[in-house]
Fold this sequence. Notes:
Elements: E1 18-19, H1 20-28, H2 30-38, H3 48-64, E2 72-73, H4 81-94, E3 97-105, E4 108-118, E5 121-127, H5 135-150, E6 156-163, H6 175-178, E7 179-183, H7 185-192, H8 195-207, H9 229-232, H10 249-257, H11 274-285, E8 289-290, H12 292-299, E9 306-314, E10 330-339, E11 347-352, H13 360-370, E12 376-379, H14 383-395, H15 397-408, E13 410-412, H16 415-418, E14 422-423, H17 433-440, H18 454-466, H19 470-503
Parallel strand pairs: 1-4, 2-3, 5-6, 9-12, 12-13
Antiparallel strand pairs: 3-4, 4-5, 6-7, 8-14, 9-10, 10-11
Helix pairs in contact: 1-2, 1-5, 5-7, 12-19, 14-15, 17-19, 18-19
The structure holds iron/sulfur cluster.
Amino acid sequence: MELFNDVEFSPQSVSSTLSKSQFLKGQQCHKRLWLSKHRPGLRREPNHTAEFLFSEGHIVGKLAQQLHPGGIDINEGNPSIPIKLSRTQDALKTHNVIYEAAFQFNHVFAMVDILHQTPFGIDCYEVKSSTTEKAVFLQDMALQQYVVEGAGLSGVRFFLVLINPHYVRKGPINVNELFKQIPVHYKIEALKQHIPAQLQSLRTALKSPNAPSTEIGPHCFSPYDCDYMSHCWAHIPKHSVFEISGMKLDKKFELYNKGIVHLTELFNTPGLNPHQNDQIRAQKHDEPIVNKPGIQAFLNTLFYPLYFLDFEAFQRAIPPFDTLRPYQQVAFQYSLHSQQTPQSELKHTDFIAEPNEDPRYALAQSLIKTLPKNACILTYNSGFEKLVLKQLADTFPKFSKHLMVLHNNIVDLMEPFQRHDVYTKDMEGSFSIKSVLPALVPELSYESLAVRDGQMAVISYIKLSQTSNPIEKETLTSHLREYCKLDTYAMVRVLDVLREMANSEA
Length: 506
Ligand code: SF4
């Protein structure tokens, strides 16, 4: 399964041969392709999320091979391109099913995830770990068809293999239910007609000694975030029009293309909503927005005992446990700060489920032991915590009543920020706790932590399930606990700031 990674080429072929992923980069933006070939050093290093998605995609691709079992894997041992090409030619004579079949035509190299020779023709399958069809997948397959047919194969039909979001795991994974195989040859046939002209255009751009003069635009984010943004966007200052909250990207580019770059240039512009005007005003006057009655109204909804709750959860394409669907959120950890009365000391407790086991029962059991029914529960962006509690209540009827009381007692600490009862320019138009915390409590930071965001927490939890080294287990567990603890302590401190603001004289 080829994601957006580059294929290695020999120096002789670097100027003329394109891989499938390079073709798609070029389709997104000629400059992206030019930079990837001529200035690879400017590329942003793949982050942990990209690496995680790549590894998930690889696992999904391997599992999908079971849809057409008994094949030969051309990529075994990750050989050079010439070896992949000759192995494929040999395999076509000896095997009906080939994984990662490699073809080259008109200086384009492409690999087919699964190739199945049947009595009715040759079926090619492209596996994606997505639940929905996307235009870029069809473009990808149109190029494959162009290369495969150009290399001499005929009677080829193409299928897109996607994850079925309605699949519910019961026992061992049933690949025929987990995946859906969608015929797309009739859709890609029309796209294929444009490939020769598209290749010509990409090659002309690549031959130029200078990078194409492509301006930044919505294409920098579609179909994928470009990895050259730190280069092309270097001239965009902090607090630009791209920070305006609640404005569509096209509209932001409309402003930018009119020469409006700084947020403050939009001061007194008609047609903006009240939140956008607040944001621009806070920026222009460097003054926070503080609506004391609004903050007080929010504080009045809180009661004691007061608990601050945060979950960490994973979503896996292949459901790891029974009764789970693909990509279902599964909480494996929580942190809880609590105060019984306004005068009581702040206490902390937490929970991390045993890795390699379904975490849901133990987590639900721990929650109902720890969180009383009379608790006021503060979370940040409560939709997620409510979803987790509702799913746990549905899954474990014996805990359902208690869990739904907790669900109904949730108050969202993000509300006053969403309503713009509080806004400072350092929030940069975002209400997320990762933006609100540094703006209101700058001395608290995630920067020094080994786990700094939810995706890193998921990766650490997966690593925890894969290691048997006790020291590594202890280290990973401690990093996870530190991260989740800071999430709830951040809420404690943000609430303190809200109270100070509500009580201030100014
Ligand atoms: S950042 Fe935008 S303009 Fe620059 S290469 Fe990427 S897609 Fe093209």
